[in-house]
Design a protein that fits this description.
The protein has about 130 residues and is mainly β. The chain is built from no helices and eleven strands. Helix content is about 0%, strand content about 55%. Strand 5 and strand 6 form a beta hairpin.
Length: about 130
């Protein structure tokens, strides 16, 4: 079992930055792949970014490539999502997820299977 707690959300103007954090608790937390998803009002939850347990490979949704960076610190059981050049369409509840990876080097979101979810943190980008 893994418990996930997100933080770092808030209100920011378009063009600004935010850094989300996700602390994972559990004896084997550092062995899980981690990911970030988001859900905007009236829309389905969508994949944003994923990182393998080693941090060796990362995957991004096309909508955030070049603006968002996912990283992790296994010594602290923490994953991060650095969000730059934020746009109003990035407004959503952001969820941290933990799970497994099907291959050593993951190149698509389908290479992850996420089983554990945090409660979410709200990000609002004003125009």
């Amino acid at each position: 079992q893994v418990q996930l707690v997100e933080s770092g959300g808030g209100l920011v103007q378009a063009g600004g930055s935010l850094r989300l954090s996700c602390v994972a608790s559990g004896r084997t937390a550092s062995s899980y792949a981690m990911g970030w998803f988001r859900q905007a009002p009236g829309k389905e939850r969508e994949f944003v970014a994923g990182i393998t347990w080693s941090g060796g490979s990362t995957v991004y949704a096309d909508s955030v490539k070049g603006r968002f960076t996912i990283s992790r610190d296994n010594a602290k059981n923490t994953a991060f999502l650095q969000m730059n050049s934020l746009k109003p369409e990035d407004t959503a509840d952001y969820y941290c997820a933990a799970g497994v990876q099907s291959v050593v080097v993951v190149r698509t979101p389908e290479g992850f299977e996420f089983d554990y979810w945090g409660q979410g943190t709200q990000v609002t980008v004003s125009s």
